[in-house]
Amino acid sequence: MRITRSVAGRRHRTALVATTGLTVTALLLAGCGGSSDSDKGADADGNITLTVADFGQFGYKEAGLFEKYHKLNPKITVKEDTTAEEKNYYPKLLQQLNSGSGLADVQGIEVGRIKEIVDTKADSFADLSKAIGVDEWVSWKAKQATAPSGAVIGAGTDIGPMSLCYNRELFEKAGLPTDRAEVAKLTEGGWEDFLALGEQYKKKAPKGTYFMDSASAMFNAVVSSSPEQYYDASGKPIYEKSASVEKGWKLAAEAASKKLTQGLAQFEDPWQAALRKSTIATVVCPAWMAGQISTYAGDANKGKWDITSAPGNTSANWGGSFLAVPKSGKNVAEASKLVAWLTAPEQQAAVFKAIGVFPSNQGAYELPDVKNATLPYFNDAPIGQIYADGAKSIPEAVLGPKDGVIKDSISTQINNMEQRGTSPDKAWDAAVRTIEKAIG
To answer: Over the stretch 107-164, which tens digit does the pLDDT of each residue have?
Structure first.
């Protein structure tokens, strides 16, 4: 998941992260600024324009990184071409790969697409294994972009370690603890404990409020915290027999039947309004979600929210992307250097400070802008520590080429259970039919 931008007016996250200590100013020099023998895109004076195609909000513009790169490499100018919605970006990328034309020097790839790209288009991208420090990334992130040949076709940008965002004011009114350590203890047994906490909340809940926004978000968190999700290691879809899918579905159905959820499709207008009106007490919270909550809950709710660790002792990953370099580009060597620089610890820390997406490069975790980061909006929650701890417990999961389609199909039916009262059996059958049509 990446924050999207509308066509009329781009949505953005304000700089939410506060740090103690000095801002990191050390920047890695990616190259000497000239073109290499393998680059054919330089003009007569040796100047190169590198194009970066991405989607949503990668944060490079907000962190001023392209301008900094140009200062370090005066002969290189970077131009970004951003598509608001990834769902529109990806089909275009596939068309360009199939035709062999129209590709940028650097292309963004969303984590939900990386398996399909690795399986079907790996030969179209440069091997970055020598350009980047593969061992610096969380291990499962690097493996997601590694082809069977050993080629690493994408450098990890960010990850979405899971946490739990909760409305302290609503918790207090419902007679629940508000201290983040106490809240974490109440859910340390896992998502079953989370639902039990929801039932406690419901007993004294302020009128018109709900314990959670969406059972589909909880479902995604349950599945994402397991190494076995929608596919097995051989590439066979196993969503109908997956233990994590079964558990997540059961818990989602329970949440819907007990009216613990407001049944809102996340990011849509009613969800935004619910945040603004403070009608939901908890939101499953990957690192990037904090920006969404603060944006739509608004200044009136500053300090009313807090963040604690996700239920259970195994975290989950929701979101993250990669930067890849098409082989067909005229500036492959310089593009690879740019990718290495953008995904180095200092630059990932700068992006985290600017827009709140959490680094996939572990070297960033000890830098002040990450390690000491807090969120003033969320009662000064120590997010650098919370997210880094979560990142360490994320299991290495098997990804499949149609993970996104499967998850979205199931989520739609969970919403139907919440909003329309569809029975779990009918909802599941409908999800399976949709998935079978989509993946064959």
So the answer is: 999 998 999 999 999 999 999 999 998 999 998 999 999 999 999 999 999 999 999 9
| Entry pTM | 0.85
Residue holding tokens 């801002």? 23
CA separation for the pair 208, 59 (Å, rounded): 36
- Choose among 171, 158, 160, 162: nearest CA to 306: 171
Beta-carbon count within 10 A of 20 CB: 11
| Cα–Cα distance for residue pair 324/330, rounded to 1 Å | 14
Closest by alpha carbon to 358, among 184, 165, 157, 203?
A: 157
Name the DSSP letter for residue 374: B
d(CA 114, CA 143): 10
Q: Are 308 and 182 in contact (CB under 8 A)?
A: no
Distance CA 238, CA 240 (A): 5
CB burial readout 202-221, b (16+ within 10 A) else e: beebeeebbbbbbbbbbbbb
Direct distance between the N- and C-terminal alpha carbons of the chain, in angstroms, rounded to an integer: 25
What are the average pLDDT values for consecutive 10-residue runs of the chain, which has 440 residues?
38 47 36 47 87 96 97 98 95 96 97 94 97 90 94 96 97 98 97 98 97 96 94 94 97 98 95 98 95 95 96 89 97 98 98 94 96 96 94 88 92 96 97 93
Where is 243: in which H helix or E strand?
helix 243-257
